[in-house]
Amino acid sequence: MKPRQTNYFSICNACKLCCCQNARPPITQNRRKQIEEYLLTQELRVDKPFETTEYVFPRETRDGFCVFFDEETRRCRVYAVKPETCVAGPITFDINLQTGKIEFYLKFERICPLAGTLKKDMVALEKHVKSAKRELLTLVGELDAEALSAILQIDEPETFKIGEALLNKGVLERLRNPRARRKGSVH
Ligand code: SF4
Ligand code: SF4
Fold first, then answer.
1. Which atom of ligand 1 is nearest to the CA of 20?
2. What helix, strand, coil percent values describe the chain, rounded to 5?
3. How far is CA 18 from each of CA 26, 90, 106, 120, rounded to the nearest angstrom?
4. Is residue 5 very low, low, confident or very high in pLDDT (cuts 50, 70, 90)?
5. What is the residue extent of each domain of the chain?
6. Cα separation of 119 and 19, whole Å?
7. 169-176 and 145-152 helices, crossing angle to 10°
8. How far is Cα 93 from Cα 140, in angstroms, rounded to an integer?
9. Are 127 and 7 within 8 A, CB to CB?
10. Are strands 56-58 and 69-70 parallel, antiparallel or unpaired?
11. What is the mean pLDDT of residues 136-147?
């Protein structure tokens, strides 16, 4: 399987600010299928891997760690098929309904050492931005409006804007429909 991103294990393994705790990355139907197939083919046993509130995300342990996080190796057990926001991190997104654009944000270095490394290496940053955009556009294209609206309500403090792109009209229409608007706080 072709890697979806550069591997940053050396930075993330040394990180004390684990972003796999209280992460709740959104899971589309397609992603869920891929993770379930991966668990089967890799013979990984994970009891009840997903939880659903307003959207689907990997179940959390009592300490709030993602059920796919291996606390011994400090690596993701489903790395090859991990959720789109996990590939994109430390880049996050928001949707601006007024401009019809998806906006991309980079976390501050103090909450993510990888962000600091990327900021100092423009070539690596550009490469990562490209894969993050691809993953996040796939995600917003596949999530239903209720799930996407719920995700957009989650605050992402300590980030700064690094770019934006026009959003597919279908996604905007889904978000603008009254049922989605009741649940969301998109601006
Ligand atoms: S992405 Fe950032 S916060 Fe998450 S483990 Fe890596 S360095 Fe730490
Ligand atoms: S899916 Fe993997 S990378 Fe994403 S939060 Fe869970 S353990 Fe971390």
1. 4
2. 40, 20, 40
3. 18, 12, 16, 21
4. confident
5. 15-82, 86-183
6. 18
7. 80
8. 10
9. no
10. unpaired
11. 95
Q: Which of 21, 50, 76, 84 to mutate to test the pocket of ligand 2 (most atoms within 8 A of CB)?
A: 76
Ligand with the closest atom to the CA of 92: 1
Report which DSSP code applies to 58.
Answer: E
CA of 107 to the centre of ligand 1 (A): 10
Q: What is the pLDDT of residues 158-184, one digit of tens each?
A: 999 999 999 989 999 999 884 644 443
Q: Which residue type, as a one-letter code, is found at position 97?
A: L
Q: How much is the pTM?
A: 0.92
Round to whole Å and give the CA distance between 90 and 137.
16
Confidence at residue 2, expressed as pLDDT on a 0 to 100 scale: 73
> Residue 131's closest CA among 91, 80, 78, 171?
91
The bound ligand whose nearest atom lies closest to the alpha carbon of 69 is 2
